[in-house]
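Suppose you are handed a protein chain with no further information: no name, no annotation, nothing but its sequence. What can you learn? This example shows the usual starting point.
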Amino acid sequence: NYPIEKIQESSWRQIHPHPQDVLIRWGSTLYPELDQRFQHIVNPIFFIKSNCRKDVMLQHARNIIQAPRVYTRSQVMDRFFQQFPVLGRQCYHTRGRDIKIVRNREEARHARADYFVRYIRNQQEYRIHVIDGRIIRIQDKYLPNQEPTGIITRNYHLGWRFRDLPSSSFRENPREWEHLVKFSLTCYKYLDREAKLCILPAEREGKKLLFMTAIDAVKNDQGLHFLEANSAPYLSETGVIRYVQNISWFIEHAIAS
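A reasonable first move is to predict its three-dimensional structure. Written in C-alpha coordinates, the prediction is:
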Protein backbone atom coordinates (compact mmCIF):
# COMPACT_ATOMS: atom_id res chain seq x y z
CA ASN A 1 0.00 0.00 0.00
CA TYR A 2 1.66 3.21 -1.21
CA PRO A 3 -0.53 6.27 -0.52
CA ILE A 4 0.33 9.34 -2.59
CA GLU A 5 1.53 11.16 0.54
CA LYS A 6 4.17 8.50 1.13
CA ILE A 7 5.38 8.78 -2.45
CA GLN A 8 5.67 12.55 -2.16
CA GLU A 9 7.48 12.44 1.16
CA SER A 10 10.04 9.92 0.00
CA SER A 11 10.47 9.17 -3.70
CA TRP A 12 8.80 6.97 -6.24
CA ARG A 13 12.27 5.56 -6.96
CA GLN A 14 12.23 3.85 -3.57
CA ILE A 15 9.12 1.85 -4.42
CA HIS A 16 9.94 -1.73 -5.36
CA PRO A 17 6.66 -3.61 -5.76
CA HIS A 18 6.30 -7.34 -5.28
CA PRO A 19 4.97 -9.35 -8.25
CA GLN A 20 1.53 -9.59 -6.63
CA ASP A 21 1.21 -5.86 -5.90
CA VAL A 22 -1.37 -3.83 -7.81
CA LEU A 23 -1.09 -0.19 -8.87
CA ILE A 24 -4.44 1.63 -8.81
CA ARG A 25 -4.59 5.01 -10.51
CA TRP A 26 -7.60 7.22 -9.78
CA GLY A 27 -7.27 9.85 -12.49
CA SER A 28 -3.64 10.60 -11.56
CA THR A 29 -0.82 10.76 -14.10
CA LEU A 30 1.89 11.41 -11.52
CA TYR A 31 5.04 9.26 -11.56
CA PRO A 32 4.49 7.57 -14.94
CA GLU A 33 7.57 5.40 -14.38
CA LEU A 34 5.62 3.44 -11.77
CA ASP A 35 3.59 1.79 -14.53
CA GLN A 36 6.76 0.08 -15.72
CA ARG A 37 7.37 -1.44 -12.28
CA PHE A 38 3.96 -2.97 -11.62
CA GLN A 39 2.65 -6.06 -13.39
CA HIS A 40 -0.98 -5.45 -12.36
CA ILE A 41 -2.45 -1.99 -13.02
CA VAL A 42 -5.93 -0.55 -12.64
CA ASN A 43 -6.27 2.33 -15.13
CA PRO A 44 -2.73 2.55 -16.53
CA ILE A 45 -1.46 6.01 -17.26
CA PHE A 46 -1.93 5.74 -21.04
CA PHE A 47 -5.66 5.06 -20.51
CA ILE A 48 -6.05 8.07 -18.20
CA LYS A 49 -4.24 10.36 -20.63
CA SER A 50 -6.50 9.28 -23.47
CA ASN A 51 -9.50 10.18 -21.25
CA CYS A 52 -8.08 13.59 -20.30
CA ARG A 53 -7.97 15.32 -23.68
CA LYS A 54 -11.72 15.79 -23.99
CA ASP A 55 -11.53 17.76 -27.24
CA VAL A 56 -9.42 15.15 -29.04
CA MET A 57 -11.61 12.39 -27.63
CA LEU A 58 -14.75 13.97 -29.10
CA GLN A 59 -13.17 14.66 -32.48
CA HIS A 60 -12.12 11.03 -32.87
CA ALA A 61 -15.34 9.65 -31.40
CA ARG A 62 -17.44 11.33 -34.10
CA ASN A 63 -16.03 8.82 -36.61
CA ILE A 64 -17.69 5.96 -34.71
CA ILE A 65 -20.51 7.24 -32.50
CA GLN A 66 -22.82 10.23 -32.29
CA ALA A 67 -21.06 13.10 -30.48
CA PRO A 68 -21.16 16.91 -30.54
CA ARG A 69 -18.90 18.72 -32.96
CA VAL A 70 -15.80 20.45 -31.58
CA TYR A 71 -14.84 23.99 -32.61
CA THR A 72 -11.71 26.08 -32.12
CA ARG A 73 -11.90 29.68 -30.99
CA SER A 74 -11.04 30.89 -34.48
CA GLN A 75 -13.94 28.89 -35.89
CA VAL A 76 -16.54 30.36 -33.53
CA MET A 77 -15.10 33.84 -34.07
CA ASP A 78 -15.56 33.56 -37.82
CA ARG A 79 -18.24 35.98 -39.02
CA PHE A 80 -19.99 33.20 -40.94
CA PHE A 81 -20.30 30.92 -37.89
CA GLN A 82 -23.99 30.25 -37.24
CA GLN A 83 -24.00 27.46 -34.63
CA PHE A 84 -24.61 29.49 -31.46
CA PRO A 85 -25.15 28.73 -28.67
CA VAL A 86 -22.05 26.65 -28.04
CA LEU A 87 -20.42 25.53 -24.82
CA GLY A 88 -16.96 26.74 -23.88
CA ARG A 89 -14.94 23.95 -22.27
CA GLN A 90 -11.51 23.43 -20.76
CA CYS A 91 -9.44 20.34 -21.52
CA TYR A 92 -9.12 19.44 -17.85
CA HIS A 93 -12.19 19.87 -15.66
CA THR A 94 -14.33 18.33 -12.93
CA ARG A 95 -18.06 18.39 -12.22
CA GLY A 96 -18.72 20.66 -15.21
CA ARG A 97 -17.33 23.73 -13.41
CA ASP A 98 -15.71 24.87 -16.66
CA ILE A 99 -18.88 24.97 -18.78
CA LYS A 100 -19.69 28.40 -20.21
CA ILE A 101 -22.71 29.06 -22.39
CA VAL A 102 -21.52 31.15 -25.34
CA ARG A 103 -24.32 32.83 -27.30
CA ASN A 104 -22.37 35.06 -29.70
CA ARG A 105 -18.90 36.01 -30.98
CA GLU A 106 -18.38 38.65 -28.31
CA GLU A 107 -18.90 36.11 -25.54
CA ALA A 108 -16.63 33.69 -27.40
CA ARG A 109 -13.89 36.31 -27.50
CA HIS A 110 -13.82 36.58 -23.70
CA ALA A 111 -14.71 33.00 -22.78
CA ARG A 112 -12.16 31.17 -20.69
CA ALA A 113 -12.17 28.05 -22.84
CA ASP A 114 -9.70 25.75 -24.59
CA TYR A 115 -12.30 24.64 -27.12
CA PHE A 116 -16.03 24.85 -27.87
CA VAL A 117 -18.65 22.18 -28.52
CA ARG A 118 -22.06 22.32 -30.14
CA TYR A 119 -24.81 22.64 -27.58
CA ILE A 120 -27.20 19.68 -27.82
CA ARG A 121 -30.72 20.37 -26.63
CA ASN A 122 -31.62 17.21 -24.76
CA GLN A 123 -34.15 15.60 -22.48
CA GLN A 124 -31.82 13.59 -20.26
CA GLU A 125 -28.19 13.04 -19.28
CA TYR A 126 -26.74 9.72 -18.18
CA ARG A 127 -23.56 8.46 -16.56
CA ILE A 128 -22.68 4.84 -17.22
CA HIS A 129 -19.91 3.26 -15.15
CA VAL A 130 -17.98 0.58 -17.02
CA ILE A 131 -15.22 -1.64 -15.65
CA ASP A 132 -13.39 -4.04 -17.95
CA GLY A 133 -16.23 -3.97 -20.47
CA ARG A 134 -18.95 -4.61 -17.87
CA ILE A 135 -21.55 -2.02 -16.88
CA ILE A 136 -21.70 -1.83 -13.09
CA ARG A 137 -23.93 1.21 -12.65
CA ILE A 138 -26.29 3.44 -14.68
CA GLN A 139 -27.28 6.88 -13.41
CA ASP A 140 -29.21 9.87 -14.65
CA LYS A 141 -29.04 13.52 -13.66
CA TYR A 142 -31.85 15.32 -11.93
CA LEU A 143 -32.50 18.70 -10.32
CA PRO A 144 -34.05 18.27 -6.86
CA ASN A 145 -37.23 20.26 -6.22
CA GLN A 146 -36.90 22.40 -9.35
CA GLU A 147 -38.06 22.42 -12.96
CA PRO A 148 -35.23 23.27 -15.40
CA THR A 149 -35.92 25.94 -18.02
CA GLY A 150 -34.06 27.60 -20.90
CA ILE A 151 -30.62 26.42 -21.97
CA ILE A 152 -29.79 23.63 -19.56
CA THR A 153 -26.26 22.90 -18.35
CA ARG A 154 -26.43 20.16 -15.76
CA ASN A 155 -23.60 21.35 -13.50
CA TYR A 156 -23.00 20.16 -9.97
CA HIS A 157 -22.72 23.74 -8.66
CA LEU A 158 -26.16 24.53 -10.17
CA GLY A 159 -27.71 21.82 -8.04
CA TRP A 160 -27.79 18.89 -10.45
CA ARG A 161 -27.09 15.46 -8.96
CA PHE A 162 -26.67 11.89 -10.19
CA ARG A 163 -28.99 9.14 -9.02
CA ASP A 164 -29.14 5.42 -9.74
CA LEU A 165 -31.84 4.44 -12.17
CA PRO A 166 -34.33 2.09 -10.51
CA SER A 167 -34.76 -1.41 -11.86
CA SER A 168 -38.37 -0.51 -12.72
CA SER A 169 -37.05 1.82 -15.45
CA PHE A 170 -35.50 -1.13 -17.24
CA ARG A 171 -38.66 -3.21 -16.96
CA GLU A 172 -40.87 -0.39 -18.26
CA ASN A 173 -38.65 0.53 -21.23
CA PRO A 174 -36.54 -2.56 -22.05
CA ARG A 175 -35.80 -1.51 -25.64
CA GLU A 176 -34.66 1.96 -24.58
CA TRP A 177 -32.29 0.60 -21.95
CA GLU A 178 -30.99 -2.08 -24.26
CA HIS A 179 -30.03 0.74 -26.64
CA LEU A 180 -28.36 2.66 -23.79
CA VAL A 181 -26.32 -0.40 -22.79
CA LYS A 182 -25.27 -1.09 -26.38
CA PHE A 183 -24.30 2.56 -26.92
CA SER A 184 -22.27 2.62 -23.69
CA LEU A 185 -20.34 -0.52 -24.56
CA THR A 186 -19.60 0.87 -28.03
CA CYS A 187 -18.19 3.98 -26.35
CA TYR A 188 -16.09 1.84 -24.02
CA LYS A 189 -14.68 -0.22 -26.90
CA TYR A 190 -13.76 3.01 -28.68
CA LEU A 191 -11.97 4.30 -25.56
CA ASP A 192 -10.20 0.96 -25.10
CA ARG A 193 -8.99 0.99 -28.70
CA GLU A 194 -7.85 4.63 -28.61
CA ALA A 195 -5.93 4.07 -25.37
CA LYS A 196 -4.09 1.03 -26.69
CA LEU A 197 -2.93 3.04 -29.70
CA CYS A 198 -0.95 5.18 -27.24
CA ILE A 199 1.32 2.36 -26.09
CA LEU A 200 3.47 -0.24 -27.82
CA PRO A 201 2.34 -3.87 -27.52
CA ALA A 202 5.75 -4.73 -26.03
CA GLU A 203 5.08 -2.32 -23.15
CA ARG A 204 1.85 -4.19 -22.32
CA GLU A 205 3.41 -7.62 -22.59
CA GLY A 206 3.24 -9.61 -19.37
CA LYS A 207 0.98 -7.09 -17.64
CA LYS A 208 -2.61 -7.50 -16.51
CA LEU A 209 -4.55 -4.29 -16.97
CA LEU A 210 -8.01 -3.19 -15.88
CA PHE A 211 -9.72 -0.21 -17.51
CA MET A 212 -12.52 1.60 -15.71
CA THR A 213 -14.35 4.74 -16.76
CA ALA A 214 -17.60 6.64 -16.38
CA ILE A 215 -19.22 7.58 -19.69
CA ASP A 216 -21.40 10.69 -19.93
CA ALA A 217 -24.09 10.82 -22.60
CA VAL A 218 -27.19 12.86 -23.39
CA LYS A 219 -30.39 11.86 -25.15
CA ASN A 220 -32.57 13.85 -27.52
CA ASP A 221 -34.87 13.12 -30.48
CA GLN A 222 -31.85 12.06 -32.57
CA GLY A 223 -30.79 9.46 -30.00
CA LEU A 224 -27.82 9.22 -27.66
CA HIS A 225 -24.77 11.47 -27.89
CA PHE A 226 -21.41 10.73 -26.28
CA LEU A 227 -20.07 13.67 -24.24
CA GLU A 228 -16.95 12.49 -22.44
CA ALA A 229 -15.33 9.80 -20.30
CA ASN A 230 -14.09 10.19 -16.74
CA SER A 231 -11.23 8.17 -15.27
CA ALA A 232 -11.85 9.58 -11.78
CA PRO A 233 -15.61 10.17 -11.42
CA TYR A 234 -17.04 11.59 -8.22
CA LEU A 235 -18.52 8.73 -6.21
CA SER A 236 -21.07 8.53 -3.44
CA GLU A 237 -20.68 5.90 -0.73
CA THR A 238 -22.68 3.46 -2.85
CA GLY A 239 -20.45 4.14 -5.82
CA VAL A 240 -17.30 3.56 -3.79
CA ILE A 241 -18.63 0.18 -2.68
CA ARG A 242 -19.41 -0.83 -6.28
CA TYR A 243 -15.94 0.13 -7.49
CA VAL A 244 -14.17 -1.53 -4.56
CA GLN A 245 -16.07 -4.77 -5.18
CA ASN A 246 -15.10 -4.87 -8.85
CA ILE A 247 -11.49 -3.81 -8.33
CA SER A 248 -11.15 -6.40 -5.55
CA TRP A 249 -12.45 -9.09 -7.90
CA PHE A 250 -9.82 -8.09 -10.48
CA ILE A 251 -7.03 -8.09 -7.89
CA GLU A 252 -7.98 -11.53 -6.56
CA HIS A 253 -8.21 -13.10 -10.02
CA ALA A 254 -5.16 -11.32 -11.46
CA ILE A 255 -2.94 -12.49 -8.63
CA ALA A 256 -4.47 -15.97 -8.52
CA SER A 257 -3.75 -16.55 -12.20
